[in-house]
Structure formats: structure tokens, C-alpha cells
Amino acid sequence: MATISLAHQLPTNPRSLTMVMRERYLVGAHIITALIALMFGIFMGPFQAFHRSPTFVRYFPSIPIFSYYYQAVTAHGVMNALFFTTFFIIGFTYFVVERSLQRKLRLGSLAWVAYVSMAVGLVMMLATLLTEPQRSAVLYTFYPPMIAPALFYFGLVLLALGSWIASAIVFLTYRDWRREHPGERVPLAVFILIVNLIVWDVATIGVAIELVFMLIPASLGILQTVEPQLGRTLFWFFGHPLVYFWLLPAYVSWYTMLPRQAGGKLFSEPLARVAFLMFLLFSVPVGLHHQFSDPGVSASSKGVHTLLTLIVSVPSFMTAFNVGAALENAGRNNGGKGLLGWVWKQRWGDPIVALQLFGMLTFIAGGFSGLINASSQLNATIHNTSWVPAHFHQTLGGAVTLTYISIVYWMLPAIRGRQLFSKKLALWQGITWFVGMTLFGLSMGEAGLAGAPRRAVTSAAPYLSERALFWLDVTAISGLILLISSILLYVNIVGTLFFSRRPVEAGEIPITTRSGDTRSPLWFERWGIWLGVLGLLLLMAYGPVFVEMLTYEWNILRYVPVINTPMR
Amino acid sequence: MELNKLERYWLTAVGMMLGAFVAATIVALLFFGIRLPSPVDRIDPQRLEETVFANPGIRQLAGNRYEAYVVAKSWAFEAGPDLGTPPVLRFPRGAEVTFYVTSKDVMHGFQIEGHTANLELVPGQIAKTTVRFNRSGEYAIICNHYCGAGHSVMYATIRVE
Hints:
The structure holds 2 protein chains of 2 kinds.
Chain A: H1 2-6, H2 21-42, H3 44-52, H4 54-59, H5 69-101, H6 110-131, H7 150-180, H8 188-219, E1 225-226, H9 228-262, H10 269-282, H11 299-311, H12 314-333, H13 341-344, H14 351-374, H15 379-382, H16 387-416, H17 423-449, H18 466-499, H19 527-550, E2 560-561
Antiparallel strand pairs in A: 1-2
Helix pairs in contact in A: 2-5, 2-6, 2-16, 3-5, 3-18, 5-6, 5-7, 6-7, 7-8, 8-9, 8-10, 9-12, 9-16, 10-12, 10-19, 14-16, 14-17, 16-17, 16-18, 17-18
Chain B: H1 5-30, E1 57-60, E2 65-73, E3 76-78, E4 88-91, E5 96-103, E6 108-112, E7 117-121, E8 127-132, E9 137-142, E10 155-160
């Protein structure tokens, strides 16, 4: 009986590194499933870098995975970008919300329904990728008219369904807290996570329509024809906010955890809330910046999205200032003097801090390359070249992933109740990841400027210049460094789960239960208003696009036949 | 909600920088004429022989202006029997060429090395871009959108002489 009643408690100290039983199971299931999905995705990456390099392929022509380039790209994208992130974010959100609000999740048992839905989705996806590698090589953007087996899309639908249930649970939990705490501001971490789930729920509507009304009927043979231009537009309605769905949990760590981990204090909480309200409004109506080269979207709509995309960089600049100031504060507390002395006085030896700092450094390069992509005409020089993966590997593969891994380095010990297997290994993992990803960004960016396309077996391409081929060889070196880093990561994960003997140290998880913010207006939490404004922005940014597509004289679904043999 | 002085300076600097980006976009549009693709027409990809793409290839207009019609399919660009496989498109230096390109099957890409021509080829849509070839040399037309097993060998060549 004792264990059963214990199983329903919250930890008495919200900052305790020890988890109670139900927390350990629920959060643990999500984080460990995320790490399993990541394992299937992460190890595909270096082999693509090798496969793209002409020199590497000349010396090692017969590595078996080299017969499966596009299948590897598909697995790398789907597992890293969709399954790893979603499982991780939902698990992290449950944990932070429960601890910060000091209350159990409302309808907590539904969280298991959500988990099972997402996990069945993961199994379906893995089964399709492994048993039908040729037909499921549609990449993680799955543009029609290329159509994968139905199981591919059902896996994604179940993932989305689970995440919707999870966000409903979080919203209800917040609503209960809100009712009991009138006149109080919700802790910043929860504020950010609520913004994040709203962005996610709105964005997934686009891809859900594409899946349910176009791709699934096409894969089942109910539809013989599809409309690719509409499909792409629905995908990117989802595809860009998706990157903010990944970024915002990393910002939770940077804003609400890192200042204390680094020994400092956040500069301004009200400014942080303004930044996240901007993310709420401007993350979604910007998807056309992925479609600047599309023939079926008018240039005027592309112009509107250019402007909105530049605006959505503002909250990230605000973050650079706010978090930068917190780090300066931390560095000066640690004895840093002069203009830049605080930089060297950061806790570079602590993997949890260092990984996040490395992530910020890659984010500076990644963020500026993003501004280049957003400037619509410049996009014509880099669109669909390897510059684009260079950009999102510095933002997502760099900043977001390094921050998630730094979270794993404290959360996994909390889940397991044992210390991290090796802090030294963790630090070296972070250093190699930072070096590898920086070199990857540089070389893929340069190769892209020299004309190397993304998502192509460039080692077999007959048309590339010497300069492009040189940088593709450099990418292979970055792939090797990242392969070493990935191995270090999984040695530490497996070590912590199975071989670590020492119980978890006395220490604190930087959770804030009461907001110290007394300045920001309470109407910041009137979510109805923000949803209304977002609706108007969407109407303005996407209304003309969809009207243009849907009112054309033809029956738009009639003309483009489904192709379900991409690798024939 | 009052802002700290430093916050104000920072936000002003960011605003000015983004303003400069917007200004650059407008200048590029008005003075350099760099336009984004916009809808031309839709087309039935299964009946290209009934359209302007029935006889792909190069057509000379007045002076040094040309039109080029190119069809992309898995996994080649087609520009008529005269230009070979993979096709070689020849233009004199200084030629201003308007490309009309479409896809017969899946998504393809159309990028001219060293020039600001970069189109998504969406089946059912005609894509259009105009390029001026000021430097002589050989430039690849690259399919830069994943289109299946033969994607990385799908290209054509432009020879400016």
C-alpha cells in the first residue's frame, strides 16, 4: 500500500533530483523513447556525409549503407526531427509543468494514452522504414505526388494525435492553476511551454489536413491524383512553426535554468514574456519562406511572408540580449573583469552549462544564415543547396540538440536515480559535437554556395565544380567527428542507465515555482486575445494563398497522378 | 511596462538592421529587377504534347532575347532532340533568356550554377524565370529537388560563348 500511495505524490521539494515513482515512469518513458528514436536517426547522419564525399567513396566504395542514401536521409529526418523531438518535448513539458506549478497533471492517466498513441506511431514508422525501404524513401517532407506506404502516414497521424492529447492535458492543468492563483503570473517556464504547445497545435492543423485528405487517401488508392502545390503549402504551414516547437523548450532551459546553472540571474522576465508572445504570433504565418521558388504561389504573398519572417527574428535577438546579460551577470559573479572577462569565467568545465554555451555559439551562425535565407531574393542563390542543411544543422542540430542533450545529462540521472556515468565524457561529447557541427555548417554552406544540392548523392553527381567537391570532402571529416560524438553520447546514456552505481548527487534542478515578475501585465496570459490576433495574421498571410489555389478553374485534385515508386 | 535603457538601445539597433534588410529587398526588386517566381499557368502533366511544351527547346526572339522551354522528368531534362542528352543549351554572351520549365511526374528542381535562377518544378505548374548571361563559360543546370533514385545524375548544361 505504501508504494501505491507514494506513487500518487509529487516530490516535496520541486528542485529535488530524485523523482517520485509516477514521474519517473511517465517522464522516463518519454525521454527514453526519444533517445531510442534519436539513435535510429543520429547514426544515419555521418554516413550521408561520407556518401556525399567523392574522396571517401573512392576509398571505401563498399560500405553497405551506401546503397541506401535516400532511405538514410528519410530515417535521419523522420526520427531526429519528428519522433525524437516530439517525445522529448512532451516528456520535458510534463516534468517542468508539474514541478513548476506543484500540481499533478490533470487527467494524468490520459498522458499514458497519448504516450501509447505516439509509441505505436513510432513502431509503425520504423516498421515501414525497415520493411519497405524503397517505397518509403519520401524524406521527412514527403511531398506529393511521391507517395509512401500508408503506414508511414498513419505513424505520423498517431504521433500528432498523441501530442494533441498531451497539450490538452497541459492546458487543463494550467487552467486549474490559473483559477486558484488569480493576480499571479505563471512561472516563465510554463508560460513558454504553453506558447509552444499553442504554436504546435495550430501548426499541425496544416499537415493533418494534408495527411488525412490527400496523402492517406492517395496511399490507400482512394485518390489516383493529388495536388502537389497545395500539399507543399500545407506542409510548410506546419514545417516552419515546427522549428520553433523544437527551439522553445531549449529557450526554457536558456531563460529559466541556465542563469542559475551558470551562477547568475535573468536580466528581464517581462521582456522574456514579450519575446514569447511574439513567437506565438509570428511563428506560423511565415511558411512561404520555404516556398520562395515555388511557381504556384504569388510573389506578393511571398513578400508578406518575407516581412513576417524578418519580424520573427526579433524575439531571438531579444533572447540574445536577455540571456547574454544573464551570462554576463554569471561571469562577473564568478570573478570576470573588464569588457570580456566574463566570457572566460563561465563554467566551461560543467557539461550542462558548456553544452548550452556551445549551442548558443552555433546559433549565432545559424541565426544569421537564417536571415539570409529569409531575404527572399538571396534565397535564389541558396535554395535547395546544401547551404540549407548547413543552416538548420547549426540551429537545430547545434543549438537545440546540444541544449536537449544538456537536459538529458541531468534528467536521465534523475530518472534512473544514479549519477551520470561520466561527466568528462559528457564534456568531450559536447566539444566534439560543437566542433563537428561548426565544421559541418562551414563546409556544407560553402559547398552549397558552389552549387552542391542538398539531399543528393553528390559523390555520383557528374556536374559539380572542384570547389564544391572539395567542401563535400571536408563535410565527410565533420561527419567523422560527429560520429565520434554520437558514440560518446550513447556510451554515456547506456552507462547511466545500466552501469552507474552511485546514487544521484545532492543537487538541484533549477525549477522556479513562483514567478518573481511583478512588472509584466496580467493580460499577457489572456490567451484568447492572442489566438484571435494569430487568426487574423494567418488570414492575412495565408488567406490569399489558399484562395488562389482553391479557386482555380480546374478541379485541383484531378491532374497530377500519384507516383508511389520513388526508388524504382 | 517600462524598458531598461540598454534594452531600448538593443531593440533599436535590431529594428534598424531589419529595416535595412527590408530596404535591401525592395532595392533588389525595384532596381535590380530580381523577382520571385509567380504563377504563370497550370498545365496537365500527362498531356504536355498538347501544350507549349510539345516541342521543347530554344526560340530566339528579337535581338539578344531568347525563350527556352524545358521539361523535367525522372531523371533527365528534355530540351528537344537537337540539343542532345543530357541537353546542352548554347547562348551568345549577353543573351537574356526566359526559361519556361515544368515537370512531367514528381517534384524536380531547376538551378543554374552561378546565376540567380532557382525554381521548384511542381507537376501541374509552369515555372518561369529570366536570366541574363553576362559571362562566357559553362554552367550546369542542376536538379536540386529530390526526385528518386536517379536524382544526383539529373542535369543539363548551358554554354555561353
